[in-house]
Design a protein that fits this description.
6 helices; 28% strand; alpha/beta; 253 residues
Length: 253
């Protein structure tokens, strides 16, 4: 059984996002693998280490620099990579989840024996969280979102995060799982594995040749930075704090 892991290249989580001319400025900005996608990669590699799966294939969609992100996943333990190349922005400004899910569906159909697709629950750039559910719907596969624990035997048993705690779901394969923060802690790629990753196979496909309508269905009209925070006020004691909350902020009665 093979596992397909979808990964996304995003602005690094530690970088302060800049807004320029109504959009996020990506020029000369450090980008890296989406943190939730790292968790999906780690879970797939752990399944392989436990001999639950035979091969882990990683796929990424975006410009040529995505090969760097794929190499990172290969250094973590994935076996081979697929790069679907496009110059369209993947942060919802141009290439959107509906088209991305269709591209991933094409990959699943082209590969043999893929019974599990692991994705991050969302990208930290667009925060859509739509690609996994859309892919499951297109494939007619069961889905489990926000996974915090995955057990793979004859069936798939997943504990998932909810607003009130967690719930455990058992489903058959093939299936799509989106990975949440508490699922695992991704490993760091060691130098020997980084060197080995350079020799692993990465196939390149052109998104424009895959028979998918890549045009966005929604238009982002404007992107603005949040207003700067106002300077805080020091209070002398609890009584003054309560007075200001009651009389000025009017958040208590």
């Amino acid at each position: 059984m093979k596992v397909l892991v979808g990964i996304k290249r995003v602005v690094d989580y530690a970088v302060k996002v800049r807004v320029n001319k109504g959009t996020v400025d990506l020029a000369n900005v450090k980008q890296s693998m989406n943190p939730f996608c790292e968790i999906a990669v780690e879970e797939a590699v752990r399944l392989k280490d436990a001999k639950k799966v035979s091969e882990v294939i990683v796929v990424s969609i975006g410009p040529k620099h995505c090969t760097e992100t794929i190499r990172t996943a290969l250094a973590m333990g994935c076996d081979r990579g697929i790069h679907i190349q496009t110059d369209m922005r993947t942060d919802y400004m141009q290439l959107q989840p509906f088209a991305i899910a269709q591209l991933l569906k094409k990959v699943v159909e082209q590969e043999e024996s893929i019974n599990l697709v692991l994705l991050g629950k969302q990208g930290i750039d667009s925060d859509c969280g739509q690609t996994g559910p859309l892919l499951a719907g297109m494939m007619g596969w069961p889905q489990v979102t926000f996974a915090s624990n995955v057990q793979l035997d004859d069936n798939l048993v997943v504990e998932r995060e909810t607003d009130t705690g967690t719930e455990t779901i058992e489903t058959s394969l093939p299936a799509v799982v989106t990975c949440d923060l508490r699922l695992n802690e991704p490993r760091y790629a060691t130098l020997p594995n980084i060197m080995k990753a350079k020799r692993k196979k990465v196939d390149t496909l052109q998104a424009s040749d895959m028979g998918v309508d890549l045009e966005p269905h929604y238009e982002v009209m404007d992107v603005v930075e949040p207003p700067p925070r106002k300077e805080g006020i020091m209070v002398a004691d609890v009584d003054e704090l309560i007075s200001k909350l009651r009389n000025e902020a009017k958040v208590i009665k």
